[in-house]
Amino acid sequence: MEQRTVLVVLFEGVQSLDVTGPLEVFTGASQWHGDAEPYRVVTASPDGAPVRTSSGLALSPDTSLTEAAARSWHTLLVPGGAGTRAQDADLVAWLRANAPRARRLVSVCTGSILLARAGLLDGRRATTHWAYCDTLARNHPDVEVDPDPIYVRDGHVATSAGVTAGIDLALALVEEDLGRDTALTVARFLVVFLRRPGNQAQFSAQLSAQTARSEPLREVQRWISENPAGDLSVESLAARARLSPRHFARSFHAETGTTPGKYVDRVRVEQARRLLEDTSGGVEEVSRACGYGTPEAMRRAFLKALGTTPAEYRRRFHSSLTTAP
C-alpha cells in the first residue's frame, strides 16, 4: 500500500486545532487501518524552530520548510489562525514555489488566505471561515468564494471552513483514500460524525442569529427550535414571552439581530434540511413536520433560502454521499 506523506505547515499564530484536528485523523487512520501505515504526517515551520499557536500552545516541528522542499510528499496541508493575517512574504513565496508539487493541496480555516496570496486559488472555487469569506472575496477577486459549505473540493485543491471543519475534510480524504470503514473507525474513536457532507452549512440558524440576552426571549428561541411545526406567529410567541406583540417584535430584533419571522424561517428550513438528509419521509410529510403546511410553501422557502427545491436538495445531498468528495 502507498504511504502518503502529509506535510503540515506551521507558523507563528497558527490555530492549534487546525493542526491537531486533521493530524489526529490521519494518524488515527494509520493506527486503525492495520499493519500498514497509510499516512506519515510531517510538520514543518519556516526555520524548523518551535512556533507558538494563537492560543499560546508551543508546537515543535519535525523539520524546516527548506528541508521539506527537498523531499516528496503527497498532501500539503496549510492551517489557519491569526498568523495568516501577518504579511509573511517568505511563507507565501515558499507556497507559491512548492505547493504545486503536491498531489493534493488542503487548507483549513483561514489557511485559504495564504493559498490565495500565493495565487494557488485563482480560478478555483473555495471556502474559508465564515467570518473571513468577505475578506477573501474582496482581496482575491479571481477566487470564487462560497461562504456556505464546510469544505469545498475543486480538482486536487480542497479548502475547509473554520476550525473543526478541518476534521470533516480530513475524514472525507481518509474515506476517499482508504474507504468508509477506516474513516468510520477514526470518527468513532474521535467521537465525531462521519461525515458532515461538504455542502452542509457552516452554521445553524441558532448560530447565525445572536442568542437573546433576556431569559424570556432565550426561551422563545428554544421553543421555536424544538417546535417548528407549532404556532410560531408573532402573537403566539409574544404571549409565550409575556409581552405585547409590538414590544416582543422590537425586543427580539434588538437582542438577536433579526426579526421573529426571519428567525422562524431559518429554523424551519434548517429542520427541513435535516429531515430530507436523515429520513426517507416524503416532501409532503417533511413540510407538515416543519410547519409549512403544504409542500408548495416549503418549496418557496427552499427556493428563497437555498436556490433549489426540496426534492433537488435531497437528490444532491445523497449524491454527495455516494461519490468521492
TrEMBL record:
> Per the record's keyword annotation, is Transcription regulation included, yes or no?
yes
Q: Is NADP given among the entry's keywords?
A: no
UniProt protein name: AraC family transcriptional regulator
What the entry lists under PROSITE patterns is as follows: HTH_ARAC_FAMILY_2 (PS01124)
UniProt xrefs under Gene3D superfamilies: 3.40.50.880, Homeodomain-like
| One Pfam short name | HTH_18
Q: What are the entry keywords?
A: Transcription, Transcription regulation
Outline the extent of the HTH araC/xylS-type domain: 218-316
Q: Which organism is it from?
A: Streptomyces silvensis
Upper lineage: Bacteria, Bacillati, Actinomycetota, Actinomycetes, Kitasatosporales
Which GO molecular function annotation, any one, does this entry have?
DNA-binding transcription factor activity
Please give the superkingdom of this protein's source. Answer: Bacteria
InterPro entries in the record:
Class_I_gatase-like, DJ-1/PfpI, Homeodomain-like_sf, HTH_AraC, INH-QAR
